[in-house]
Design goal:
With 125 residues, the protein is mainly alpha-helical. It contains three helices and no strands.
């Protein structure tokens, strides 16, 4: 019985499951026209250029994320400082020191203009 199955296996492998050498399957059709050496080098150069662009984009994105984090930290500190300045301004006003409060308000106004100017200069760069 084993010999019969062995013969069947050999027959199936040689006559049923074997693909003739001169036939071409549809999924193998791209292999019929392989790249020349010049085309192969060109494809590899394009891939290297794309890899380099990806690397540049990754580095740029990391730098932008770090800058966004710094900006958010600066916004928090700025908000805290504004609240402190507002509280200090009211304290001066409530303690009958209007000339100090006016001077302080003027200094705050000038410092905010300087900060805005610096922000505009950074946006233009």
């Amino acid at each position: 019985m084993n010999k019969t199955f062995d013969k069947l296996e050999v027959y199936l492998m040689n006559n049923v499951f074997k693909i003739p050498y001169n036939s071409l399957l549809s999924e193998d059709s791209p292999q019929t026209n392989p790249y020349s050496n010049v085309e192969d080098k060109l494809v590899h150069k394009c891939l290297d250029d794309i890899r380099e662009q990806i690397l540049v984009a990754v580095v740029r994105n990391a730098a932008l994320k770090a800058e966004i984090k710094d900006i958010k930290c600066a916004e928090v500190v700025s908000l805290e400082n504004r609240q402190f300045i507002h509280h200090l301004s009211h304290t001066l006003k409530n303690n009958n020191a209007p000339h100090l409060q006016e001077t302080f308000s003027y200094l705050c106004w000038k410092s905010e203009n300087i900060i805005k100017k610096l922000g505009e200069d950074n946006l233009l760069q």
